[in-house]
Write a structure and sequence with these properties.
single chain, alpha+beta, five-stranded antiparallel β-sheet, about 30% strand
Length: about 220
């Protein structure tokens, strides 16, 4: 599912159900789970299992993935990546930094957002677009898709800037062809001597899960 959204240079691995929830962890990773509830431990472990398999696909030795500032994963030198999990699904995507500057992935249940969440995470123009898309394509939960896109945008943004990006600081336009455009409303990161003013990405859905991805090339 995630793999279809990403270029071939990216190693993507996903898991369903309980796959990977009992995988071994490095001591550095175990140290992060001292007070974790069982659900958090299962999600954390399954995502690290996917990350390890992605490293293997890239020919990189297995290494711990700890959490840095704001909970962002700390990848081995020379790699960029992103992880995601939701009920019954998790995935990791890794790429060599020579091939991409950054990437972000997110998966969410393919279901409406809880009451009040869309108003909290959307700009007025985004909410209006979601309403129009719901009328046009009621088979897609566009409100949840908007939330997922904002998560993917942030995951791609943060490694390049080391700054917070608020929900209100990117204006997302969703397209029915499986793509989206994210206009940055604050100064964007500088990549290859060029300041970015937008990100683009892709999305897909199944009856139970939706997924989004952003990739940031060097040029």
């Amino acid at each position: 599912m995630i793999e279809e959204l990403l270029p071939p240079t990216v190693a993507a691995v996903e898991a369903y159900g309980e796959e990977g929830v009992d995988a071994p962890l490095f001591p550095e990773e175990e140290a992060l789970l001292t007070h974790a509830v069982p659900k958090r431990r299962r999600e954390f472990t399954a995502a690290r299992s996917c990350a390890r398999r992605a490293m293997e696909k890239l020919g990189v030795p297995a290494a711990p993935v700890v959490s840095g500032e704001r909970g962002a994963p700390v990848w081995p030198a020379g790699l960029a990546g992103s992880m995601t999990h939701c009920e019954g699904y998790c995935a990791a995507a890794l790429v060599r930094t020579d091939d991409l500057a950054s990437l972000g992935i997110d998966a969410e249940p393919h279901a409406p957002l809880p009451d009040g969440v869309l108003a909290a995470i959307s700009l007025p123009q985004e909410a209006a677009r979601v309403s129009r898309l719901l009328a046009e394509r009621p088979d897609v939960h566009w409100d949840r898709l908007l939330f997922s896109v904002k998560e993917s945008v942030y995951k791609a943004w943060y490694p390049l800037t080391r700054k917070w990006l608020d929900f209100s600081e990117a204006d997302i336009t969703l397209h029915t062809d499986g793509t989206f455009h994210a206009a940055l409303l604050v100064p964007g990161p500088v990549v290859s001597a060029r300041r970015l003013d937008h990100f683009t990405g892709t999305w897909t859905t199944t009856p139970t899960v939706l997924a989004t991805a952003v990739v940031i090339p060097h040029g």
